[in-house]
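Practice problem: predict the structure.
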Amino acid sequence: MAFTRAERLISNAEGMDAIVIANDGEPFLDSTFWYLTEQASGTFEGSFAVVGKDGSLDVIVSVLEEESASEGVGEVHVYHDREERERFIRDALSGCSKVGFNMHSATYAAVQYVRKVAEGIEPVDAGKVIGDTVSVKDEKEIAATKEACRISSEVAGEIPDYLSEGVSEKEVAARMDSRMRELGGTGNAFDTIAAFGAYSSQPHHMPCDYRLRKGDAALFDFGSKYGRYCSDMTRTVFLGKPPEVLERAYEVVREAQLAGIAEYRNGASASAADLAARKLIDGTEFKGRFIHSFGHGIGMEVHQDISVSPRSDQVLKAGNVVSAEPGIYIPGVGGIRIEDTCLITEDGCEVLTSFDHSFTVI
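Answer:
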């Protein structure tokens, strides 16, 4: 028997009578709302999705969002004023005591508002329950993720064509963003990172006016969205022969990624991949230069529950989508990162992004 997303969510929510997802307006919008309703469009400010103990889904929206909401799932209730909205909330939570909220994203004001409207409820944190549920993707989600990965992979293959001496980080990042849209992407998964030369040693560098020079590393961390689902990948190439230390670092990072990916499978500890990659890197001259975790969950948000870190106590499940992104960073010289988006399967993983991982000099 196939379960709806609302049914899956509430089945994981032991002790909760309902779960409320509140979209309180920009920038306080929760992707869990679209996960549950499967709606393709609409911002749905001032809207609520209420999952009942029986797996029912009440979608409460203003008349502004009526048409868009009708394209999704759940029982849609359209309000025309504040009083009508509050009546729908009370009806949806009638008889409920403990009510879960996504405390990772819900505003204090939104929780207190529902608490006032539906008298007698006790708000509890449903953040972990939501994270555990959305981290296991269904077929529809996997299909959208694969399409997002196809788009970003095609752009990755074109990167060498975008590079020449004197081009700026901003110029290349803008071209990549435009190209992902041309190929069918519905937006960026996050702000594209383009980091040249010494800037590539900064994992979260934002593109600036620095212009590419001979011998520079050129690191790109980027992703597309498709149907609200994200891809995430990093490619590092070089304009002319780089310092030998970066060439050695590249090969170590490539081997470390393979070592980590080999640990990706259903039932494996999420820490195993990081520990395998870290052990390999720390056994070289680059010990201590891997300064972040090996990966993270990916979904409607590019950073979603599942921490692939050395301290993670989570267990991977078939249907998880995670990144694989070891790196080595040498301040003042440059950095290397190689990243792919991976789908956890019963007996291993499927790498969803594709590009030439070999050492590439342009």
